[in-house]
Design brief:
CATH class of the largest domain: Mainly Alpha
Order of helices and strands: EHEEEEHHHHHHHHEEEHHHHHH
Distance between the termini: 78 Å
Number of domains: 3
Mean pLDDT: 86
Strand content: 5-15%
CATH topology of the largest domain: hpI Integrase, Chain A
CATH architecture of the largest domain: Orthogonal Bundle
Largest sheet: 5 strands, mixed
Structural class: alpha+beta
CATH superfamily of the largest domain: Intergrase catalytic core
Helix content: 40-55%
Radius of gyration: 29 Å
Number of helices: 15
Length: 370
């Protein structure tokens, strides 16, 4: 029986109840592992009579050492290296091939996330076949202090290793099929914290300052704000087109006087309100460095831009805004109006949304004055 021998594959080979079974390596002809009811031994076949030589028992003799020993022995027996060494595929090389394939099949954001996560956390300098579960999970476990980053890193490396299986680099993925789910975030900024962030956003330069202002004023997701276009804005409202927003539906939300004032002061950058620094056709994407600099003088607990959205929703409730109106502003599908009611309730709540957002302008104005 032939298979591509890896550490994980050898470890998982079942021992027969009686007799022996030999598994021959696809990478090194003549080399294999013989399994009996009591042990696993590496062997090499040679000569016209197909004689066998035992190299040593597993795990006392590792797979990599046994493979090298088999090649040395065959070279000596046949007075020359008749078995060519199979070039080792390093983890780095496999990672680069995976990312190259991803760039042809996935969205740029997905490719960027996989690239960041794999390059930042997984830097193994070894043959991809020698990488084991313990090494990978040691890295994943070290990220326990940042549950969200841990979950995303786990998904990235598991996706890569599954890709390696499909493309023949390894036989089995060493990444376990377990779930690393980050705990649901529940951070809501206090009034004092919100005031500090809002004041900071008003003084902070373009593009990050205005982006944070609009996040606070509108409750929209950071990616939606960064990708806003002037052609989407008309009649004091912005219409995110179908297929753009997270739920895939067209989303029409009023712009309060505060939001319109922020937009009106933006520089003329073409259709995109916040183009990327290196490509005017792509939206802003420098989140990490910009937010670090933005937060430097703020003496508040760590927060994310998405926490501003959650804070927006909480403050809407505090002001007595009906939940269905808040959900319309936030573009939530599920919630207070769902199921059969959602099918028949086509009311847009647009006037109510505008009233709520204007009220939020007043709330923020008073917050700054206090």
């Amino acid at each position: 029986m032939k298979l591509r021998l890896t550490d994980l594959a050898v470890r998982k080979l079942a021992s027969p109840s009686r007799g022996q079974v030999t598994y021959w390596d696809e990478a090194t002809p003549g080399f294999g592992v013989r399994c009996s009811s009591k042990s696993k031994s590496f062997v090499v076949m040679f000569g016209e009579r197909r004689r066998l030589k035992t190299l040593g028992r597993y795990p006392s003799l590792s797979l990599s050492e046994a493979r090298k020993e088999a090649r040395r022995f065959l070279a000596q027996v046949f007075d020359g290296p008749i078995v060519a060494d199979v070039p080792a595929v390093t983890f780095v090389a496999a990672k680069n091939e995976f990312l190259k394939d991803c760039s042809a099949r996935n969205k740029p954001r997905t490719v960027a996330d996989y690239t960041r996560l794999l390059n930042r956390h997984f830097n193994f300098r070894t043959d991809i076949q020698l990488l084991n579960r313990q090494q990978i999970m040691r890295v994943v476990s070290s990220l326990a202090g940042t549950p969200s980053e841990q979950a995303h890193a786990y998904v990235a490396v598991r996706t890569m290793m599954n890709w390696c299986v499909r493309h023949g680099y390894i036989d089995l993925s060493p990444v376990p099929t377990m779930s690393h789910r980050a705990a649901s975030r529940n951070r809501i900024l206090t009034k004092a914290e919100l005031k500090a962030v809002y004041l900071r956003s008003k003084e902070y330069p373009y593009p990050f300052g205005p982006i944070v202002q609009l996040a606070i004023l509108t409750g929209q997701r950071r990616g939606e704000i960064a990708a806003m276009r002037r052609c989407w804005i008309a009649n004091e409202a912005v219409v995110f087109p179908e297929g753009f927003a997270k739920n895939g539906r067209e989303h029409r939300v009023p712009l309060s006087l505060g939001a319109l004032s922020v937009i009106g002061r933006l520089p003329d950058t073409g259709d995109l309100l916040f183009p990327a620094r290196t490509d005017a056709e792509k939206p802003f994407n420098g989140w990490g460095k910009c937010k670090s600099r933005f937060d430097e003088p703020l003496e508040i607990e760590p927060y994310t831009l998405h926490d501003l959205r959650r804070t927006f929703s909480s403050n809407m409730a505090m002001q007595g805004v009906p939940i269905q109106v808040t959900e319309k502003i936030l573009n939530h599908i599920s919630g207070s109006v769902s199921g059969v009611a959602a099918v028949y309730n086509r009311y847009t709540y647009f006037d109510e949304m505008r009233e709520a957002l204007e009220g939020y302008d007043d709330f923020l104005a008073k917050l700054i004055e206090d």
